Amino acid sequence: MITDPLDPLARFLLHRNDISPEHLRARPRAFLPDSRGETSVFRIGGLNDDEVWETGRVEVSQKRGLPLYGRADVTTASVAGAGLDVQSAEPPERHAVIVGWPPAKEERISLAQQLAAEAQLVLCSAVEPT
Amino acid sequence: MSPLTLTVSSSPVSAYAPDSSEGEEGRSIHESLFRAFGFDRSIVRGYRVREALSQLNLVVEEASTPNWDGYGGRAIVPGAESRAELFLRSLPTWVDVPEVSAHPDGEIGIEWYHGPTRVLTVSLGTEDVATYAVLSGIERAHGRAVFTGTVPSIVLFHLRRLGARG
Prior knowledge:
The structure holds two protein chains of two kinds. By secondary structure, chain A is an alpha+beta fold. Helices cover 28% and strands 26% of the residues of chain A. Chain A has one domain. Chain A has helices spanning 49-64, 76-81, 105-118; strands spanning 8-13, 19-20, 25-26, 39-43, 70-75, 85-88, 95-99, 120-123. In chain A, a hairpin with a 6-residue loop joins strand 6 and strand 7. Chain A is globular and about 35 Å long. The N and C termini of chain A lie far apart (37 Å). In chain A, 48% of the residues are buried. Chain B is of the alpha+beta class. In chain B, strands 1-2-3-4-5 form a five-stranded antiparallel beta sheet. In chain B, strand 3 and strand 4 (129-136) form a beta hairpin. In chain B, helix 3 (43-62) packs antiparallel against helix 4. Classes of the chains: A alpha+beta, B alpha+beta. Chain A binds chain B through residues 14-15, 17, 20, 22-23, 25, 27-29, 32-36, 40, 60, 64-66, 105-107, 109-110, 113-114, 116-119, and chain B through 59, 62, 67, 69-74, 99, 101-105, 107, 109, 111, 113, 115-117, 119, 121, 123, 131-135, 140-144.
């Protein structure tokens, strides 16, 4: 998959614990990989804000049956800077996964902290984090 | 040593009144009993521990079934809750209240978050190990330390550096 290094990737946040309400930032745990060693994201470059939220609602929130609290946007360059990779995982359209996570949990947490530090939190107006 | 009497009271603080004549042994028994019953001498600490334990209970409830996070997250693994509780109860009084959350691998995360570049995360699961990672400015550190009831000194070291004081 060829992407611009500055292409934004959205990690849709489905759990209130993914967000620090005090700091209005995504927490590191939001980026930790699943059991397959993947962190699900969507490439949102070229989409307007409404289209991004529509993607989150339809492809993530509704399919998983969980509320959408917000999203954490990172760039492909940030992911690469952490020594990780982004791979296309379509369908659905624009779906991708962050891969290359190390096997050691402490290293995964450390990289998740790094990604969270560089991520831009965008709250979903429909749901306020508690 | 005088005979030891355990006073049952609704107030853990007032209940803790070791007689000086009991000596070290009596004091030690008192401490053990109060720990066993979940009591503590410090009122401030008591509030903080309760706050953190309340978070822990909520997290365990929310993450008790597979796919609790919508991304295939594993349910809380055996031993994680008890270790997390022990960890929270073992924190020194100078440490502020951490945030508790579930991790996708079923471990429980305990986190001090002081901003995007000042964060310490400890993860507890099925083993007597505290897995930790800290981000402090541009510095990063991570590792594993034995945890069987005493907060690892390396974690306390990073907490002091992070300024995670209550």
